[in-house]
Amino acid sequence: MEPSRLEPRCSVGSAQHELREHLTHKPVEIEIEDNAIVAELLGPYSRNIADIEQAFQVQIYQRGNILSLAGDTGETAMAADAIRRLEARLKQGRTVETGDVHGAIRLARGKPAQPSAPASDTVPARTKAEIQTRKRVIEPRSPTQRDYILALQNNNLTFGVGPAGTGKTYLAVAAAVAAFLERRVERIVLSRPAVEAGERLGFLPGDMKEKIDPYLRPLYDALHDMLPGETVTKMLENGVFEVAPLAFMRGRTLANAYVVLDEAQNCTSMQMKMFLTRLGENAQMAITGDPTQVDLPRGEKSGLAEAVGILNEIKGVGIVEFTSADVVRHPLVAKIIEAYAKGAGADGR
User: What is the mean pLDDT of residues 100-117?
Assistant: First the structure.
C-alpha cells in the first residue's frame, strides 16, 4: 500500500512521488499499535497532524497504523517526539484537544528540563511535572510550565512572573488543590489585591463579600475547574478554602496552608513584605504576576519585581519567568503581547 497524505492537499497517487522528491533524509517511521489511537491522534480532518506538520515543516504520511515523517533530521525528530507525547496521553485514556497538541509541540521543540531550585528542608522533592486534581490531570504545555510545576512542588515559595495567558495562576491554584487532596496541607488561601484595572468603578453595592468578589472571580473559576462545584462550595463555607483580598492578610500567620497571591504586580513594596512574612509552619506560597500590567497609582513602586530581585538566591525560593512564547491561550494572544512590547520599546517606555 502506498503511503497517503493525511490532508487533501495532494492526491494519494502523487504522495509517493512527492515523498521521493522532497526527501533528503531517511523518513522516520512511527508505528502505533492501537488503530483507535491512530484515529484520535490524527484528529478531525487530520487537524492535529496538520498542526505538527506546519510547526516543524515536515510532511507526514499514513500507511495503516504507521506514520512516516519526512523532512530535516532535527525537525522530524522533534515532530516524532510530539506525536509520541500525544500517543502516551491517549494510552492513559485522556483526550487530545488542540491545546494539548500545541503543548506537545512546544515541549518537543523546547529546552531540556531545568532542575528546580533546591528543595527546601520541609518540602519533599518531586521530579514528575504533573498535577493531579479531582477533575483532571494537569500536564505542562510548554517547557517553562514544566519548570514552573516542578518549582511549585519543590519549594516553600515560588514566583511565577510573566505575561497573561501563560498559566501562572491556573497552575498555582492546581498545585494548591493537589497539595490539599494529598493532605500535605489543611487548607487553601487564595488572595489578590483589590486594585481596579485602569478603571474607576465607583461605589459597589452590597456587603463586603459582594464588593470584593468581582476582583477574586478568576480564583473561584480556577477552583471550580479542578473540583466538583459542591466540594468547592462546602470548603468555602467551612473556611477550609479561603478567597480573600490582600488587605485581609495583615496580622495573620498562615500555617499548614497552600497560599496563592495572584496579580502581585499590584502589591506595593510594603504589602509584598507583609504578605511574604505571613508564611507559617508547613506552608507553601505561590506568587504570580505580570510586571507589564501594573495598575498601581503613578509613581507607586510595584513590590513584585523588588521581591524577585531580593529573594532570587535564597534556598527554598523558586523563580520562574515566562515569555510570550509560553502563552497557552489563542495563538493570537502571543502575537498581541509581542506587538505591544515592540510598541512600548518604540515609544521609549
Answer: 72
Sign of CA dihedral 153, 159, 163, 169: positive
Residues in contact with 315: Cβ distance below 8 Å, sequence separation at least 6, in sequence order: 117, 118, 120
Q: Do 174 and 226 contact (CB within 8 A), yes or no?
A: yes
**E runs forming strands in 27-148:** 28-31, 59-63, 66-70, 131-132, 137-138
**Residue 313 corresponds to which amino acid?**
E
Helices 35-42 & 47-56 angle (0-180, nearest 10)? 60
User: Each residue of 64-96: pLDDT tens digit?
Assistant: 888 988 888 888 889 999 999 898 888 888 888
Question: Do residues 154 and 248 lie in contact, with contact meaning Cβ atoms separated by under 8 Å?
Answer: no
Provide the whole-model pTM: 0.73
Residue whose C-alpha cell reads 508505528 in the numeric block? 31
Q: What are phi and psi of 34, to 5 degrees?
A: -95, 120
- Using only C-alpha atoms, the chain has a radius of gyration, in whole angstroms, of 23
| Residue carrying the nine cell digits 452590597 | 206
